[in-house]
């Protein structure tokens, strides 16, 4: 499709600020709302969606009390003599009954099943399946979105994403205990629309070239904060406001994305540095395969998948984990709310990796020769990638322990890991590969990762039977992903990669001196 945007388009400073603010706001609200699944599924369980899978309800005059030294047994519940229990009710044993008994706490069983310390495997499996499909739909079309941005442009992509978000919230409002099947298409549309919005705002980092890494990590990291959006359902439920009414409001709010798209350039954000030729942009368009089939690209694809797989497994397991670690409905609800509050804090964490990368890139500008300078620019992503990986390992390892302390540790680690996986990855791709490949590479990495994320559901099923073995395998693969940041330290490898990327011989770059930290266009080999 031919670009119909004025090639000499220039944006005023005020328009740049407005566009960047809009992108930040949209990413913070809708870019990754589906990742707030642990909060949403808690609300849906309280409402009783798919509770019919758990068998017949329990009839109590008041919540049952488990005396000291008395524990709940698998598939049965302790009930005082003056209460009745239908025998086909499915209830599994809490893992942490010893802690609860030591506090002489009351085990609560809700009328909708599987809330608090209850466990209903069929219900958990259905929610796990919905979340797996949702996450896969989030980025599987990423390659199509990348090409849509590249060919159809910014405005078309944003209008498409905003429309899907609005429809998704409308269907989420329709989903009820009597009609839970609407939850599937609702989550799929929210995933598709949210990813289109997230990928659309990525190029807004080109509005401020001197601070590109900071801008990109801020924009991409904001999507992590959007996971707290579903917290609104728990607050409104306490205020006795119908979830459907909240969904109508969110549908109207997300529809603003369509109208705000007309404030944006038609096709893309003008990038004068790319047009003039920069240190990481070739004047001649290179084939995408030259970037895609490099060692850096392969290692980054592995790193991106494994870390996202770990985060999504953590989020998918979170509700079951806190259920097994809690002694009451209120305690489980507290951990659910803390998950959303933690996602709000990620707003302040995501820009740090970009700010550090920008600092290292600026510091690299003082390097005497051009080749070493460009190598150090790429190596600027080493520490952000390493810290992100360590945080992901700490977060995921915590679910091996059924204790409140482990929950708090995991949330602290998640505050760093969750926003930085996307944010740091995006900044790294923008620095490491030619700018012309940026949108398409993001789309390909996202699509490949999402296809592989279908493994989440069989992993969840395996974890129900062999909990520690399933999660131990994920930790082992996470250890392998450390190769991605570590390979950046091999300077000879990076020198060769830079020469190929920029289509310049290493000797020509070594002979080229920098002047005041400014880029100089080398002679093509």
From TrEMBL:
Domain of life: Eukaryota
Gene3D superfamilies per record: MFS general substrate transporter like domains
Keyword annotations from UniProtKB, A to Z: Membrane, Transmembrane, Transmembrane helix
GO molecular function, one term: transmembrane transporter activity
InterPro entries xref list: MFS, MFS_trans_sf, SLC43A3
Segments passing through the bilayer: 17-37, 128-150, 156-175, 213-233, 245-264, 338-361, 382-401, 407-429, 441-460, 466-490
Name of the protein: Solute carrier family 43 member 3
């Amino acid at each position: 499709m031919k670009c119909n945007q004025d090639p000499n388009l220039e944006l005023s400073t005020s328009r740049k600020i407005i566009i960047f603010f809009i992108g930040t706001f949209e990413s913070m609200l809708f870019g990754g709302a589906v990742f707030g699944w642990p909060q949403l599924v808690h609300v849906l369980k309280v409402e009783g969606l798919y509770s019919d899978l758990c068998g017949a309800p329990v009839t109590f005059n008041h919540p049952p009390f488990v005396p000291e030294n008395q524990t709940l047994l698998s598939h049965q519940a302790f009930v005082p003599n003056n209460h009745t229990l239908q025998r086909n009710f499915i209830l599994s044993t809490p893992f942490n009954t010893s802690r609860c008994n030591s506090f002489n706490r009351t085990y609560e069983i809700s009328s909708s099943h599987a809330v608090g310390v209850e466990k209903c495997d069929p219900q958990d499996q259905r929610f796990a399946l919905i979340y797996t499909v949702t996450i896969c739909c989030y980025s599987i079309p990423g390659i199509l979105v990348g090409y849509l941005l590249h060919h159809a442009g910014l405005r078309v992509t944003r209008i498409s994403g905003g429309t899907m978000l609005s429809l998704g919230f409308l269907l989420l409002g329709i989903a009820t205990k009597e009609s839970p099947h609407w939850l599937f298409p609702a989550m799929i549309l929210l995933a598709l629309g949210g990813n289109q919005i997230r990928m659309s705002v990525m190029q807004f980092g080109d509005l401020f070239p001197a601070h590109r890494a900071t801008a990109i990590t801020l924009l991409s990291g904001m999507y992590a904060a959007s996971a707290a959006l579903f917290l609104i359902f728990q607050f409104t439920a306490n205020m006795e406001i119908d979830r459907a009414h909240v969904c109508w409001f969110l549908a109207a709010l997300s529809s603003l994305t369509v109208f705000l798209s007309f404030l944006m350039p038609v096709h893309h954000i003008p990038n004068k540095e790319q047009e003039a030729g920069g240190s990481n942009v070739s004047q001649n368009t290179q084939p995408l395969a030259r970037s895609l089939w490099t060692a850096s690209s392969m290692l980054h694809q592995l790193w991106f998948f494994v870390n996202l797989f770990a985060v999504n497994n953590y989020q998918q397991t979170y509700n079951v984990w806190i259920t097994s670690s809690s002694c009451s409905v209120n305690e489980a609800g507290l951990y659910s709310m803390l998950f959303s509050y933690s996602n709000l804090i990620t707003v302040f964490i995501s820009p740090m990796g970009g700010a550090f990368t920008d600092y290292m890139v600026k510091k690299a500008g003082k390097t005497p020769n051009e080749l070493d300078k460009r190598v150090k620019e790429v190596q600027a992503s080493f520490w952000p990638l390493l810290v992100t990986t360590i945080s992901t390992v700490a977060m995921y390892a915590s679910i091996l322990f059924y204790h409140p302390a482990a929950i708090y540790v995991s949330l602290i680690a998640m505050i760093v890991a969750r926003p930085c996986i996307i944010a740091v990855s995006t900044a790294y791709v923008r620095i490491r590969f030619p700018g012309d490949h940026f949108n398409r590479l993001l789309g390909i990495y996202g699509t490949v990762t999402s296809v592989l994320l279908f493994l989440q559901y069989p992993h969840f099923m395996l974890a129900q039977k062999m909990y520690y073995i399933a999660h131990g395998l994920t930790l082992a693969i996470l250890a392998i992903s450390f190769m991605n940041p570590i390979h950046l330290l091999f300077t000879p490898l990076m020198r060769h990669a830079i020469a190929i990327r920029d289509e310049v011989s290493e000797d020509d770059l070594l002979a080229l001196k920098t002047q005041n930290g400014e880029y100089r266009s080398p002679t093509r080999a």
